[in-house]
Design brief:
The protein is α+β, with helices and mostly antiparallel strands. It has one domain (2-273): Endonuclease/exonuclease/phosphatase (Deoxyribonuclease I, Chain A), CATH 3.60.10.10. Helix content is 25%, strand content 25%. The protein has helices spanning 11-16, 20-35, 54-63, 139-159, 191-202, 208-213; strands at residues 2-7, 39-43, 67-72, 85-90, 96-98, 114-118, 122-128, 161-167, 205-207, 222-223, 240-245, 252-257, 265-266, 269-273. Helix 4 (139-159) links the parallel strand 7 and strand 8.
Length: 281
């Protein structure tokens, strides 16, 4: 089973934009379509509260004709056109879809950050973890989120095994970013956020990239757009993950980044796993 996760940073821009960056985003979508995964998880869709427009759906249905589409958008009292997630999955799959709320602080539960697909033998869930914010102004709320989300995944794991994808907005270890020495007080690499991710893994989950690749360095999933040479210089961070329940880690075949060319920001990540079970209800 091939699965892809990507923080797309505006689905509308990628599908209908005409800027140079939008065209690069569209090329990435085409690359994903060529890989033909069973499931695609998208984060930071930035869609309106009522979801994709008719035009968005027409384009997606043309590019991904044999997929079902579900989404979770930011709704009041949260900001409009903010955060948001989406799953595209092959229409041969018949999951039960839920949009969990985890009793997160502030408006986080209204920001469309989690979608879960439930199959007979496992859960496939994605997350767009809140950023700690400029000046770490949301760090305290982020720490609460991390605990609540770990509680949620652990609860799922007690029922069935779990595959979890998304933009977790944290570089877990110093080898997960190019310049750890200058980023210890930066959102995504504070001690608090790293401890939150450690706690999540300790609940019974495996970082599949590290499971496959060990302590390899210089492989990242995000490069800052504000720094024009960040990708050329590979000054990146690994903040996007595929996690699995510890007990199925040995079923992982591949966990790697997909080449997104010169486009900065996030790159898609691929998980290939031998589930050994039916994915149909």
């Amino acid at each position: 089973m091939k699965l892809i996760s990507w923080n797309i940073d505006s689905l509308n821009s990628a599908l209908t934009g005409v800027s140079a960056r939008a065209l690069l985003s569209l090329k990435v979508i085409n690359t994903i379509a060529e890989i033909n995964p069973e499931v695609i998880a998208l984060q930071e869709t930035k869609l309106p509260s009522d979801g994709p427009t008719k035009k968005h759906l027409e384009i997606l249905n043309d590019m991904f004709a044999d997929y079902e589409i579900v989404w979770n958008s930011s709704v009041e009292p949260a900001r409009k056109g903010y955060a948001g997630t989406m799953f595209l999955y092959k229409n041969s799959l018949k999951p039960r879809v839920s949009y969990p709320k985890i009793d997160a602080p502030g408006t986080m539960d209204s920001e469309g950050r989690i979608i879960t697909l439930e199959f007979d033998d496992f859960y496939l869930t994605q997350v767009y973890t809140p950023n700690a914010g400029d000046g770490l102004n949301r760090l305290e709320e982020r720490q609460i989120w991390d605990i609540k989300y770990a509680d949620y995944l652990e609860k799922l794991d007690k029922d069935k095994y779990v595959i979890a994808a998304g933009d977790f907005n944290v570089a877990h270890k110093e080898i997960d970013l190019a310049h750890p020495d200058r980023n210890h007080n930066t959102a995504g690499f504070t001690d608090e956020e790293r401890e939150g991710f450690t706690n999540l893994l300790n609940r019974g989950f495996t970082d599949t990239f590290r499971y496959i690749h060990g302590d390899i360095t210089g492989v990242y999933s995000w490069w800052a757009q504000r720094a024009r040479t960040s990708k050329i210089n590979n000054s990146g961070w690994r903040i996007d993950y595929w996690l699995v329940s510890d007990r199925i880690a040995d079923r992982v075949i591949k966990s790697e980044m997909i080449d997104s060319g010169p486009r900065q920001d996030h790159t898609p990540i691929l998980l290939e796993i031998d589930l050994g079970v039916s994915t149909e209800d």
